[in-house]
């Protein structure tokens, strides 16, 4: 059973922007029913400003595919085409609060559909190169795609490639070829240094992550000892909580607060101060 975030569950059960944009200015399509995942993205673009005014999707796939597609439409609306073109598959996953490793290919599919729509709107064509090598015939994944996704996401193992592209997830005969591609790609050694700088979280995203940590990690532990915690407010990096039950006047209260601070700082990527009212 996959462990989905509340955001993924919400956008799966109540997806936003389902359907087709009437008289769409651009349509991007990726995947196929044969492969098990397919996505059609339609956009309405203001021709004077090149700004995306509407975006809708149709998809055949799992909960992650539906949630990723819905997230994509929310991310692109209001952006110019140049701004939308900078959206990465990791941006889609981050919007959802993360995806299971095995479902990251859904975010990649969304990014590819967006690229296809923008390319078509601009009248650009993408002819398949004569030299393009289809590595995974089960899911029609080329060497070009494997290399690109590996570079963008710093992938170094065959399992990671499968998670992000599905290549190798069928009969498995292409796994040695994928391994050879990775060895060639990282011939000078695996990617070093720190990963790409993490984008600053929006206030909404930060609050969502804080709520998730408190609800899924902290509360169950406190409730197991007859205690509880309530999120009161978030003011920048200052998180105000209320201790409840046996946590009130508990001699270990300060240690509990410090532990919550450390966990939230780790998740948010910024120093968080937790204050009990």
Structural commentary:
There is one protein chain. The chain is α+β, with helices and mostly antiparallel strands and 277 residues long. The protein folds into three domains: 6-121, Sufe protein. Chain: A (Alpha-Beta Complex); 134-185, Orthogonal Bundle (Arc Repressor Mutant, subunit A); 203-276, GMP Synthetase, Chain A, domain 3 (2-Layer Sandwich), CATH 3.30.300. Helix content is 43%, strand content 19%. It has ten helices and eight strands. The chain has helices at 6-13, 63-76, 81-84, 89-95, 104-121, 143-153, 158-165, 175-185, 203-224, 253-268, and strands spanning 26-32, 37-46, 51-60, 134-136, 141-142, 227-235, 238-245, 273-276. The strands form three sheets. A three-stranded antiparallel β-sheet has the order 1-2-3. A three-stranded mixed β-sheet has the order 6-7-8, covered by helices on one side. Helix 10 (253-268) links the parallel strand 7 and strand 8 (273-276). The mean pLDDT is 87.
Topology record:
Elements: H1 6-13, E1 26-32, E2 37-46, E3 51-60, H2 63-76, H3 81-84, H4 89-95, H5 104-121, E4 134-136, E5 141-142, H6 143-153, H7 158-165, H8 175-185, H9 203-224, E6 227-235, E7 238-245, H10 253-268, E8 273-276
Parallel strand pairs: 7-8
Antiparallel strand pairs: 1-2, 2-3, 4-5, 6-7
């Amino acid at each position: 059973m996959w462990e989905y975030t509340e955001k993924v569950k919400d956008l799966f059960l109540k997806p936003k922007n389902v359907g087709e944009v009437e008289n769409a200015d651009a349509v991007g399509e990726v995947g196929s029913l044969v492969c098990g995942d397919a996505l059609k993205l339609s956009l309405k673009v203001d021709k004077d400003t090149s700004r995306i005014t509407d975006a809708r999707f149709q998809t055949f796939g799992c909960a992650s595919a539906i949630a990723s597609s819905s997230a994509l439409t929310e991310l692109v609306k209001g952006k110019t085409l140049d701004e939308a073109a900078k959206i990465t598959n990791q941006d889609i996953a981050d919007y959802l609060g993360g995806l299971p490793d095995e479902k990251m290919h859904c975010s990649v599919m969304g990014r590819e559909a967006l690229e296809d729509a923008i390319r078509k709107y601009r009248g650009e064509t993408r002819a398949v190169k004569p030299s393009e090598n289809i590595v995974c015939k089960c899911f029609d994944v080329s060497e070009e795609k494997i290399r690109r996704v590996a570079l963008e996401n710093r992938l170094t193992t065959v399992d990671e490639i499968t998670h992000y592209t599905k290549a190798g997830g069928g009969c498995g005969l292409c796994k040695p070829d994928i391994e050879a591609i990775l060895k060639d790609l990282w011939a000078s050694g695996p990617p070093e240094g720190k990963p790409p700088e993490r984008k600053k979280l929006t206030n909404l995203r930060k609050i969502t992550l804080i709520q998730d940590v408190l609800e899924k990690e902290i509360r169950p532990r406190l409730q197991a000892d007859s205690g509880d915690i309530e999120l009161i407010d978030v003011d920048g990096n200052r998180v105000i909580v209320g201790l409840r039950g046996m946590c009130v006047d508990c001699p270990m209260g300060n240690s509990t607060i410090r532990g919550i601070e450390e966990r939230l700082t780790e998740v948010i990527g910024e120093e968080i101060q937790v204050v009990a009212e």
